[in-house]
Amino acid sequence: MATKTCKIVYNETKTYANDLNDDISFILRIIGLRRIYTRSTRNGRETLVQQTDISMEKNTEFEFKIPPDCLVTEKRCRGLVDILLKFHGIPDRIRQCAVPSIYKEAMELSRYREEIGGRGFLIVTQVGVIEETWISDDDDSEDEIRTEQDVCSICLEALGEVRNTMNLVCSHSFHKDCIFQWLYHNLSCPICRYDDI
Question: Which ranges carry the RING-type domain (predicted)?
Answer without folding.
Answer: 152-193
